[in-house]
Amino acid sequence: APYFRVFNPVMQGVKFDPDGDYVRKYIPELAQLPGASAHTPWDAPLLAAEYPERIVDHSVERNEALARLAELKN
After folding, report:
1. Rounded to two decimals, what is the model's pTM?
2. 22-68 pLDDT, tens per residue?
3. Does residue 37 come out as left (phi exceeding 0), alpha (psi in the -120 to 50 range) or beta?
4. Please, how many CA atoms are within 13 Å of residue 63, restricted to the half-sphere of its CB?
5. Three-state SS across 9-42?
6. Residue 66: in which H helix or E strand, if any?
7. How much is the pLDDT for 12?
8. Can you give the C-alpha Rg of the chain in angstroms?
9. Residue 41 CA: distances (Å) to CA of 13, 22, 54, 62, 67
10. Residue 43 backbone dihedrals phi, psi, to 5 degrees
11. Whose CA is closest to 36, among 45, 25, 24, 50?
């Protein structure tokens, strides 16, 4: 392949589950969040104090993965 694609799980969720129904069904802690906010619970004011921080920052890790891939190609 001419390029390496790194999918963003939040963007995929918003694209294929725009109302967050799947997320709310399988993650009971997020059942109270409206609409697409279920895809980004760390930004939701309703959960700000209770919900844990993200373990992985996708944009940082994406850049890391692409940099490592570039090293392997050289």
Report:
1. 0.74
2. 999 999 999 999 999 999 998 888 776 778 888 999 989 999 988 99
3. alpha
4. 3
5. HHHHHHHHCCCCHHHHHHCHHHCCCCHHHHHCHH
6. helix 58-73
7. 95
8. 15
9. 13, 14, 9, 20, 29
10. -100, -5
11. 24
